[in-house]
Design goal:
The chain has about 290 residues and is mainly alpha-helical. It has 13 helices and no strands. Helix 5 packs across helix 12 (about 240-250), helix 8 (about 160-185) packs antiparallel against helix 11 and helix 12 runs antiparallel to helix 13. The longest helix has about 35 residues, at about 90-125. The protein is elongated, with a radius of gyration of 25 Å.
Amino acid sequence: MSEALTQRRLAIAPVAADGVLLRVAKAAARLQIDPLGILGLVVLVFLWWGVTHLQLVSPLFLPPPGGVAAAIAENFFASPYLANYHLGDGGLQASLAYTVSNVLIALAIACVVGIALGLMTARIAFLRAVLDPVVLTAGTIPILVTAPFFLIWFGTSRTAQVSLLVLYAVTIIYLFAQRAVANLDPIYVAASRTLGADTRRIILDVYFFGTLPEVFGGIRIALAGAWGLEAFSELLGARQGIGRIIQAMASGMDTQTMAAAILTLAIVAVGFDMIIAGVFGFITRWRRPARL
């Protein structure tokens, strides 16, 4: 009896292992984890280490990866060193929280405004004729040129930074939402009308959900650019934030701590992009062919 049970367990084990591997592979695909991308990052860090180890570049201009990692660990939660530069005693994490919160607040506002205006202008010709020139003009002006004007209008407050990000993100999301409606197959609208759907149901079930995949792509693009734009806006005179740390460290020629701040922001940005890609992939899984 025990021998038969053992054989049965041995027969089931590969199937269970395959099931675990399948779930892991699906999760990796949903998070869009690219093994080649990870390999590329490993190679980049190795080259960075090699250049600094062989002293091909002065540490003043390119600090070693070990030193940057140590700077992150020493200054992340609390940092008397950063406090000497009037950057607060909360370390990198306090400034990082300020930067992240600004980006997320601006992105939330931009999603509501951009998606709503994009969907409405795609179906209302008069509204599109009024808003398109405004949005296209705002989109053609380099956002880095616009940033000093926000500094003049709103000062160095948080409002200036969030407003700049909202302007940038709304333009992208608006255009993506509008184009998504134009790319939507008219057969879906015709089918919904045939089934008796009213205007509200068509807008919600056809236009909104049908355009989500393209709109999500615009949101990811807006988020990717918002990190650098937020850091740049903080360079113009913010009282805190990762950009403020970069500015202070650049003036003090401390490239190691400056690189630590940049690397911390980059890691957070990549992490947020992976999480959002996974969430968006789960929400729009009905549009994806089953590959696994």
